[in-house]
Amino acid sequence: MLPTHRTRPRVFIDADVLFAGSASPQQHSASQVILRMAEITLLEALTCEQVIVETDRNLQEKMPAALPAFRLLVSRSLQIVTNPTAVDILPYTGKADPKDLSILIAAFRENCTWLVTFNTRHYQPGLTGIMVVKPGDFIMRVRDLLLGLM
Q1: Model confidence over 15-64: pLDDT tens digits?
Q2: What is the CATH number of domain 10-147?
Q3: What order of strands is seen across the sheet that includes strand 78-81?
Q4: Which helix (H) or strand (E) holds 132?
Q5: Do 82 and 99 form a contact (C-beta atoms < 8 A)?
Q6: Which residues 6+ apart lie within 8 Å of 150 measured at CB?
Q7: Residue 50: which residues within 8 A CB-CB, separation 6 or more?
Q8: Looking at the whole model, is its pTM more than 0.90?
Q9: Most exposed: 4, 52, 138, 144, by fewest CB within 10 Å?
C-alpha cells in the first residue's frame, strides 16, 4: 500500500549557496539546481533573514548585475524565516562557528534535515539530525536516491 501523504525534504540554504545560485553563469550549477528543485516543489527550501541580508549585501558589492536573478530566485524558491534570538542560540554555543551558529539554529528550529553550504567546516561539530553538505554532494545524494527507484 502506498503512503497517502509525503512530505518534501526540508533544506536550509546558506548565503554562499544563494550567492552562487544567483551569480553563476552556468544554468546547471549545483546551487542553481537545488534552488530550481525548490522552485518546482521537489523540496522545501528555507533560509533566514540573516542569509538574505548577507547575500544581498555581497551581491551589491561584488556582482550587482546578479541582483535581479537573486530576487527572482528568492521569490520563487525560498521560504524566509526569522532569525533566532540570542536566547535561542545560547544553549548551542560551540556547535558551529560563532558567526554561523544562528544559521545552524534556524535550520534546526525549522526541522530541516539538510543545511547546504560551501563552508561545511563552519558548522562543526553540528547538531544531530542536520546533515551539513556542499551543494554538489547534496545533488549526488539526490541522484543516488533517484537511481534507487530503478
Answers
A1: 999 999 999 887 789 999 999 999 999 999 999 999 999 999 999 999 99
A2: 3.40.50.1010
A3: 78-81, 44-48, 10-13, 114-116, 131-133
A4: strand 131-133
A5: no
A6: none
A7: 15, 83, 102, 103, 106
A8: yes
A9: 4
